[in-house]
Queue: 2 jobs
Job 1
Amino acid sequence: GSSDYFTTPLSTGFKAVDFNSEGPLRVSNGLIRGVWKQDASINDPELYEFKADLSFEGARFTAGPEFDHFDGGTRLELVARMDPERKLRSELSAPIIGTGIDVEGRKVTEPRANILIEGDDRLLIKDISGDIAGGRTVAEIEIDMALGTWELELDLEDASLQELTRVRDDEPVDGTIGRVLGNVRLFGILDEPESKRGRGRLIVVDGQMTNSPLTLSIVQLSQLMLPVSDSLEFGEVGFTVDGDRMVFDEFQLSSPSLQLD
């Protein structure tokens, strides 16, 4: 795999998220430097540095959610120093700049992030940002590589409801106009999608959601009918996530003549 070309903890981080690149994986402008005490083992350096420019095409990895078709690059900087207890302590930083990535099947353009590895066990993907469905998303992911667990917090701002609800390359669904804001916090175990748990909230403003499958289902379940001329223009929904199951347990919907809580 792609991680076989790198040393720990970088290779450990790549393996933890199952990083692979279907297209070219290029390493350039590399620097490798090591400092050893006299007669020390090759595996026992006082200082180890690895720096290089890394570019990739069609990369994919799993850090809780699935990330695919990632085109971008980074400047890797890994420094490991021997501490007084004779344990090699590593630090890694890698600011990511990309042109595009699919997150759970949704296209994100101009993705940015900063990858940090603290010690041998903690992988942080901080300052994640990108454009999605005409809006903006920011996020942060933390992975415990020793336990194989992950946590994600994501915020969404001013995204198009019509674009978010379309499936892959299908035509947008009529009656799903609006702007979406939201927040979700998830956690789970790597390679175990059924372990995913969390909670989130979505708010839709400036909406025209008469034909939205979600809002129609809620209205039908509540045995209410919207006036023919009305559409749901505001919605706030709270939900929980349990594996591949999402449960909507709080909602508020309103139109010019109706408010539904």
Note: The longest helix spans residues 213-221.
Job 2
Amino acid sequence: VTGTPAHPNHFSWTIGDLVGKDGRRYTVLVARPDGPGGMRKAVRSTTAAFSAGHVLIICGAGGLDASIGQDDLIIANRIMGFSYGGPDRVCRLRPDWELPTDPTLASAADAVGQSRSGDQAQAGVLEASLRAGIVAAGASGTWPLNGPTITPLARAVPGLLAVAEENIDAFLDLDMMRDHGQLSQFSVLCHVDHRIPSTPSPAPVTVQAPDGRHPNAGEERAAAVIVDLMSWARPLQSLTDHRTEERNDDVGSSSI
């Protein structure tokens, strides 16, 4: 995509088509955030330059639930916000930061996960699992995440699967845009790249939000399931019969 003075391309915007297993075609814009506050900046800049119907964020996460393994994928069916601090320096739930995500895409995750698991079992392949569940996201700052610091949050949110490595600011922006009709829905797909330790350590796992840029391998695993999810959930308008490129006239695109 070629940027303009009004909408410079700072996030490696790329436009292309995805074709689902059922033949339905979708036009997709990919943005790659980078640097401090990158995700929030990418969301604001991209939605200002393009008319987005559905926004999907892919980010890393720390696995919390015992059933979650390294490299597993989680579609968040809810984002639960938390803050860190206080005299006891722990993570506490912020009830005002409970953000529902696209229920159709979240529901499809279990169906896709079961289908992929069956295919892998027949092929004798062991790969990352895919499931839907609750993901937490913290306020801007540095959070030392381990058993003692996360326990109050885990107790307040039964079924919490993981903690996103992005802070909640970008998700709050998306929730506001959805409320104001600027987009129809948003989803969050997490790749679990580490486990949150259950006990303190001399060097606890620390998430520096919002600096997180993570290895591309997890993002590639997550991206590989998107076509399957879209084929099952169909959260977006199909472009098979009527194709439109919904972007501002002053933003050009290159052929890919």
Note: Confidence is low (pLDDT under 50) at residues 120-126, 202-215, 235-256.
